[in-house]
Amino acid sequence: METVKVSKGRCFVRKGEKLRGLFVLLQGSVRAVFxxxxxxxxxxxxxxxxxxxSDSYLCxxxxxxxxxxxxxxxxGVEDYKKIFEAEGKYVAVFAMSAMHxxxxxxxxxxxxxxxxxxxxxxxxxxxxxxxxxCGDYGIMEKPFKxxxxxxxxxxxxxxxxxxxxxxxxxSDLSLKSIDQFLARDADIGIGQILNAVSWMxxxxxxxxxxxxxxxxxxxxxxxxxxxxxxxxxxxxxxKASSTGIDIGELRQKITGIMEFxxxxxxxxxxxxxxxxxxxxxxxxxxxxxxxxxxxPDEIEEYxxxxxxxxxxxxxxxxxxxxxxEFRSTLEEYKxxxxxxxxxxxxxxxxxxxxxxFYDIYELAFFRSLKGGRIPVGVKMFLNFxxxxxxxxxxxxxxxxxxxxxxxYRCKAENVFTVYEWLLSIFRGExxxxxxxxxMDYMGFLNEQKKxxxxxxxxxxxxxxxxxxxxxxxxxxxxVSTNRATYGRISTYCPILCEDDxxxxxxxxxxxxxxxxxxxxxxxxxxxxxxxxxxxxSDPEHDVNREVIQKxxxxxxxxxxxxxxxxxxxxxxxxxxxxxxARFIFPILTGSxxxxxxxxxxxxxxxxxxxxxxxARWNDITExxxxxxxxxxxxxxxxxxELSTDAKDKVKKSLQKAKNxxxxxxxxxxxxxxxYESKGSFRLNKVARDIIFRYCPFSKDIRSTLSANPSxxxxxxxxxxxxxxxxxxxxxxxxxxxxxxxxxxxxxxMNLDFYSL
Length: 756
Description:
Radius of gyration: 31 Å
Largest sheet: 4 strands, antiparallel
Oligomer: single chain
Distance between the termini: 28 Å
């Protein structure tokens, strides 16, 4: 047993780490952080007890306050016996802690189960009442297809009420009563503990399912992006009020939705503000949106032959004369026997359509910022590049129509549809990307000032003009990457065409789950891919300058096209190294997502190194991935470590890459991830050595391949160097803590890096 102090805010145990011990909390409080839940543990709780039947920790444990622990080594059940043999009273102490933790978790399970069932009931009641209101008011009910597929939460083996009652009663017993009950018998105590552990694990798993159910279906009630019940009620209230109907009862129901949303803790503050703001400010006394004043040519559900192009042009307020010309050009294009021909007149048609497309897109985007509902056809245009049913194909148009209600699947913390990305810039959440000349927004303004295109006195205002920033993004990154990710640059036209759809649009959809899944596949192999060296200093606690590792996962932006390529557009968001890279993918693709991701990851590796090294990126006197790889390729003919066959392969690779060293590296990196990580040799000895030193395999892969003679020496050197770095980190952490410094989550992540 040892006494350990943990500073407030420190994540002292991470999910997935090998089980190494039990932490008996003497003072303070700890939170157990799961994927979508947090459980508070107070004094007397034992961190690691829930994991008693596992070989690794189930969640992150973070100190809420400065904490004091007794720690006991623990690898498996037999270690309980050692603890109890040393001190018999601990049988009751540990069993009591297990009962209490089980009671807390059972209580959370009961709440989550009840909440999920009640949420389903609430949704169904509100939907049925909505339909009843429509009937009472004589207003056409709007179909809500997603509600039709909603089912109650289903748990295969729910936990019985007796289990919840049992642990509640047991947790209320005094330590003395439990001590008498167990008679300090180690086997009985261990049985009670492990029984509680098994129920806790089951409850935690089910709580995860229940939370996923609520998270998956929360947008049915309220969302700022997809169709939802609040929106249906609001639209009904507007239509009914315009006819003079008393909507008092209807508004009470809307108030009920708002109150539930606030009290449920299921929605972000911004979502509620966006959704409720328009409703609260709406004047129902005026003649509002009646049926005749609905949004431009809106339709209730997909309708074959509907004129979506008119809907898009009207919404964008595209000038009538230009709209007429655009229609004429599009009809001429549609009548072509071969849309992908390369004759001068067809290239000219595509250029005209392309310019008009971007002009209309910009107008439609800025129109959407004014608020109000965006027609489905416009959503199809903004997110998929759709403009014409005949050109896209009726079946595809129908699929895209349905998919606009599922765009939430294409969003995550690091994944954006291009529309959402532009919104984030307009809101000031992100800065515009660099243009194709590698110039950022500020650099562009400064260049404009030099050339006299803008006045010096206008510069401060333009620097903070978010509309201008969006325009910069639309006219630079958007145009360039939409063309490049399409894949066939010579025949590119941004308007979605049926021939671009391979199979079905639904199968081609790039969801956040797909792209992040492909990203995680690579991170499991090349674990340091997105880690950056950043500076850390805290002079107050005697740390002037230390370098720590920080993982920065890239932003992934989905362009509105059906394409075959992906791009690594920029390796950081600005000068700082700890800002997100920007990877660009098509929102629809028939290509293998994993292969696209490996390609952009390889380019990211190269370009990130170039950014860090600056002008010396290929200077061999300063060792780096790019300098060593460039030196290896440049002088491969003189390299005695390469066989004649290996030299011939390097020569062919260079020819294929048109003497571009980066392209040679990217191909080798692809082989590194796909084949070498599985022990299938594709690289020569020199390339393998360089790539491993800068893109090492994760611990699990190193362990699997360690018996292979071709890897043994590399792995051995790596372990020695990595061990030295870890020792240095641990040493300065000890000094730092003794000086009063706090091991924050960022610092803990740095230490954990050396065990990956």
